[in-house]
Amino acid sequence: MQEIRKDSKSLPNRVKSIIHDAQFVEFIAARIPQLPVIPNERAGCWYASPKLQSHGKSVYFKSTDGHFGQWDFSLKRMNYHILKFIGESQGAIIVDITRKGKRFPDSLSKTIPIWCAVINHAIKKISGVQGWDCKLYTSRTSVSESEESQIEERIPGFVERLLSSSIDLNNLPNYIKKPLRPVWIHPSTRMFCANDDNLLWSAEEFGELPFYPIVCLSASISNAQDMQNDEEPIFPIQNSFTYIQGAADDSEMWAPGITFKHFWAASKDITMDTRNAKIEEIFSKIKENVFSATAVNNYDWIGDTGIAIGNRASANPESCWDNFDYIINCGAPEYAYSSSSKYLYLDIPEGKKGQSNLFSSISPVLTKLEGLKEFPKRLLIHCMQGKDRSVGIAMAVLIHFNGRISSRFSFLSNPTKESILNCLLVIQSYRHVAAPSRATMKKINLYFIK
Predict the structure, then answer these.
(1) Domain limits at 357?
(2) Which of 345, 322, 324, 325 lies closest to 333 in space, CA to CA?
(3) What is the pLDDT of residues 367-406, one digit of tens each?
(4) Which of 194, 228, 255 finishes a domain?
(5) Distance, C-alpha 90 to centroid of its chain
(6) How many structural domains compose the chain?
(7) How wide is the angle at C-alpha 308 spanned by C-alphas 303 and 309, nearest 5°?
(8) Which residues pair with 326 in a beta bridge?
(9) Are residues 200 and 336 both part of a single domain?
(10) Which of 48, 156, 193, 397 is 20–30 Å from 337 (CA)?
(11) For 57-80, what is each residue's pLDDT tens digit?
């Protein structure tokens, strides 16, 4: 029995499940051609093929912000970077999955509806436009009337939090000309059927919509509910593999080091008929070469600070010294120039193990930078992905030096939880993948708030 359970979650079954669900995403995208497909970090990126992600954009809506009783609008995950793109496209399709036996993850059923309502309220207050729809829209199949009512009570507080933050919202009315409204689609949504080539909206109908649709697309099949309701999914499961709902979730556990970009590069050699042994062989080769792979958007400059935050590829010795004068590595595997006087390695492991190391690294890195003859004009701070550890150290540098390297950060001269959060918001406006963990934020607060 244990062996059967282990085989059901094997790599070939995961890969084929992801490919199966990605075909559904392409099916829906073809029937809503007016809208771009934007994956929700992290798992959603595995379900949108490269041709759907050519714009290079993603969003980060956490399900925990929609958990019952914990409803929240997170300034850390405000996703400001995507609003202009949504305005230009007049909407978006946001892709995510869940593995918990339900049709929609809380990120799609509650976090995004909260986000839409808060953004709509903020635009109405800024612009003063009349008749602007600020209603909280939820799917009744996922959210009860009682829960919706409880969420609505919190919306005014979320709006006030956003409006009182350091985020520049004045241009929002220039981007968003219609209210945002969520729309939900899952693999058994009957507005589509496999042999129906009709579009969801004709060009004329789309132009006349009184809102920008934010299509919340849940890519994976919820077996239990579909069987219970006797609804056949648009793409029925084949018998050649064991289907796994939300197969890409927690990819760092079942495919450590492999990203969705590696997956899609390899998927051209994989079909539903590919032998399991061949799939194992393909992914084994990916693992062998994973650290040599480069990525799009390896680093981003943080305004006029001279500080860039990046992933490991941004520190590649073939080009790094053309771009940077000094490099701080926050725990990623080192390149051969580790003996350079313009290089500092911080031993900060990924995950929980690295939190104490991150805290103990703050003082040495600040002392090192203070000891230089002048602050580096082009400083790279990187970790493996450029999302957590490097962001935490970059925040520490910006807080410590505040207005000395950029007047933009002079508000950090007397750090508080609010000003430290605003520091992160400014960073995210330049590097939108920045997503330091709660533990990282706590360490920064602990170090600087006396």
Answers:
(1) 299-448
(2) 345
(3) 999 999 899 999 999 999 999 999 999 999 999 998 888 8
(4) 255
(5) 21
(6) 2
(7) 115
(8) 379
(9) no
(10) 397
(11) 999 999 999 999 999 999 988 999
